[in-house]
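Sample entry (273 residues):
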Amino acid sequence: MIGDSSDKSESPSSFDEFERQIEASERVADEWFSEPSTEICRLLWQVCGAWETVIEEVRFLRYNIAENPPTEPPFFYPDGEHIARDLRRVARKLNLRLPSKTEWTDECKRAKSMRDDLGHLLHFTSVTGQSPNQSVTVLRVPYWEPNEMTVTMGGIGLWDEESQTSVTTHEARWAIHNRKTVTITEAEAREVLAGLKYVKACIFALRKFGMQFAVWGDTKDVGYVLGILPWWLDDWGPRPGENGWTVPTMRQLRTIPQHDYIESLPESQRPLI
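Predicted structure, serialized as tokens:
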């Protein structure tokens, strides 16, 4: 109700709580990408948390660049199968060039594979070694793999009180989940986490150069923000620190000139130049 003092007092409190929840979530997400743990079990959970964070950040990007983002379910699906592909599509939509048509594929494939091993585990069978040469072996279900199930035929036995024996009544079809063991080394986990750190840094760069800096003209160089650009294209010449290197301009980062790109956008999505 307008003028109701209770509404006024509740609104800031609700907003403050919402803000605190966001900040708490961001702190946890930062922990996933912090220094790799020397305790391998915690390191593996870092990998899982980092992977889920990347999935959600890509989903958030897709939502933000959509012409008509959904305001009610179904929202964008957190598609772990196609993270690299979706991220490349985001880059294209933001008019940014990438070094490769397969950018982020290897990093995401390794991360998903390790996360699946951990997500479908039944238990740890062993933890061996000392950092940095630790390894864990897990027993897991081969979920969604060709050998996931074993199907056998067998009879259903009922206990007969009179004869005190089991009597087979009829044949039945039995499906049994298979099991497999997987060994993960500390070095492999560290490599996956490093790859996810690179992907996350690229997501941040896409937001900055493709959205926040979209108002910058084509001739503006990116010297003072070069540190947040994780990739480098061959046609930009020598890399930073090498002889003869130069700072790229926004036009060198873009697929097409700024003017053409802005003209291609719907009115509601055009940056204010």
